[in-house]
Amino acid sequence: MTKEDWKKAKEQLERPWPYGRAHLEADGYDVILEMQSVNDMFHKGILVYVNGHFKGSWLVQDCEERRRFMPQRQRPCMSPKQIAQYNKLPKRTQKELKHLREQTYTEYSTHWMSWGPLAKHFEANNKDIRLKEDA
């Protein structure tokens, strides 16, 4: 997809509700990006439908749809409160517990909150992406 195509897709998403949709084809998958309210009326996010569906199982099971289209984020296993307690420990104890401090997990989300990371992720994980023109 060219920069112009990405720009057109973004413009289609920014149309007023309920028309904020962009249709793409990525490596044989029919992908619909839809702007939706997240949490409350003032936060917007982009939900990805693959072949007309969004399945919650994609977020918990490793599959092609999750790898190609879902947002992911690395998170620390320790809470901010636990990290603060860890930082107050003596240096020797911190060294012994360093492996616990460095542990992370991958979190998958339902909505993309920003356009740039979505486009970058799609380009990195799909070889052939095309904007489908609505008739």
Task: Tell me the helix content.
Answer: 25-40%
Overall mean confidence score, pLDDT: 91
Biggest sheet descriptor: 5 strands, antiparallel
**What class would the helix/strand composition place it in?**
alpha+beta
If strands are numbered along the chain, what order do they take across the biggest sheet? 6-3-2-1-7
| Elements, N to C (H/E) | HEEEHHEHHHEEHE
* Number of helices in the DSSP assignment: 7
What is the rounded Rg?
19 Å
- Report the uncertain regions: none
Oligomer: single chain
Per DSSP E runs of 2 or more residues, the count of β-strands stands at 7
Features:
7 helices; 135 residues; five-stranded antiparallel β-sheet; alpha+beta; 7 strands; two-stranded antiparallel sheet
Care to describe what's here?
- The structure is a single chain.
- The protein has 135 residues and is of the alpha+beta class.
- The chain is built from seven helices and seven strands, in the order αβββααβαααββαβ.
- The strands form two sheets. Strands 6-3-2-1-7 form a five-stranded antiparallel sheet. It has a two-stranded antiparallel ribbon with strand order 4-5.
- β2 and β3 form a beta hairpin.
- The protein is elongated, with a radius of gyration of 19 Å.
- The model has no long low-confidence stretch (mean pLDDT 91).
